Amino acid sequence: MKLTNKIAIITGAGQGLGKFIALELAKEKVLTILVGRHIKTLTQTKKEILRLNGKADIFVADISKAKEFKWVNGVIKNFGLDILINNAGWSPPLKIVEKLTEKEIGDCFRINVFSMFYMLKKVIPHFKKINEGAIINISSRAGKNGYPRLALYSATKFAVEGLTQAVAKELEDTNVTCYSITPGALNTPMREKLFGDAKLKENPKFTAQVIVKLLRGDIDAKSGESIDPSHFHGL
Ligand SMILES: NC(=O)c1ccc[n+]([C@@H]2O[C@H](COP(=O)([O-])OP(=O)(O)OC[C@H]3O[C@@H](n4cnc5c(N)ncnc54)[C@H](OP(=O)(O)O)[C@@H]3O)[C@@H](O)[C@H]2O)c1
Predict the structure, then answer these.
(1) What atom of ligand 1 comes closest to residue 111's alpha carbon?
(2) pLDDT digits (tens, 9 = 90+) for 153-199
(3) Is the minimum distance from the CB of 185 to ligand 1 under 6 angstroms?
(4) Could you tell me the domains of the chain?
(5) I need a labelling partner for 71 at 20 to 30 A (CA). Which of 33, 44, 58, 146 fits?
């Protein structure tokens, strides 16, 4: 896809991986729609995009709630839409299954999985109509392997893998693509909160750059595939 002047929604764009994706897309002259619950961090991302001579708009929404997606119709009507980056995610603190609370189980599925369904229900009809579009679902290496004390997070990311494959098949007669991305450990606030070791981990900028290459068509991958950014060092 030629990225100049394309429109992208990026959830969780106020910090961590989502912020890097927004910045890398802005460098490619993509108009970025920044989504999250906190206006302060979203505004900071927007400021950095403007400093790059990029364009950005902000929508404050809790994507775990279906009723907070009405703005998506307005974005499609007023700007159009070419790219959806389902990035926002959450994990409770590391703990074994029997210690998880009912609220944590619900919240983790609502934020990591239900939100993707809510977004896709809004966006896919538009992509089908224009017969173009790219969907990137941020999964995790924990969406390929189960890890102890990460069972809940892992289960939600396995769900993202199934969702990605099924959606790609539903769209196979169109020019709309759907990929999942399965990063390992990234230096972000989430990682810092969970393990306290973020500074030793990979810079999320590299994952963001792999996503841009994938969107540009510089990576040979079939819709429905999951992409492990670590395979693209040196590309
Ligand atoms: N860090 C890693 O090692 C790693 C590895 C593999 C995959 N991932 C995945 O990468 C993605 C980004 O993770 P990260 O490490 O950058 O996490 P992060 O630093 O905690 O950032 C998460 C982002 O998601 C947003 N978010 C969370 N709940 C939300 C909600 N209910 N509504 C709207 N936005 C919400 C947050 O914004 P607000 O607080 O403003 O809402 C925040 O911007 C996630 O899907 C994560 O599972 C991370």
Answers:
(1) 31
(2) 999 999 999 999 999 999 999 999 999 999 999 999 999 999 999 88
(3) yes
(4) 7-232 (3.40.50.720)
(5) 44
